[in-house]
Write a structure and sequence with these properties.
alpha+beta, S16 Ribosomal Protein, Chain: A, five-stranded mixed sheet, about 25% helix, globular
Length: about 100
């Protein structure tokens, strides 16, 4: 299964990320198929090739949750189905019993 995910590059305490397409079983810093963009969380700078991302998604690649949130915030449609909404609730003693 192909995955669109972030891979970290840059120095210590100065992280930059690449948005890449890779097989989900490959290591995070391993070989990837295509470079789709870059993300700098310090400057909040993101450069994406939206045409290629749409191409890979149409061919069955699934973005990670982080990448899906970045794409949604940058105006790409249809990313809601890749974002899991998790709510944290405390278990009460009655529900635990």
């Amino acid at each position: 299964m192909l995955r669109i995910r972030l891979t970290r590059v840059g120095k210590r305490n100065n992280s930059h990320f690449r948005v890449v397409v890779a097989e989900h079983s490959r290591p995070v810093k391993g070989k990837f198929l295509e470079l789709l963009g870059t993300y700098n969380p310090i400057k909040k700078d993101i450069v994406l090739n939206k045409e290629r991302i749409a191409h890979w998604i149409s061919n069955g690649a699934a973005p990670s949750q982080t990448v899906a949130r970045l794409l949604k915030n940058n105006g790409m449609e249809g990313m809601e189905k890749f974002i899991k909404h998790v709510t944290f609730t405390k278990k009460t003693e009655e529900a635990a019993a």
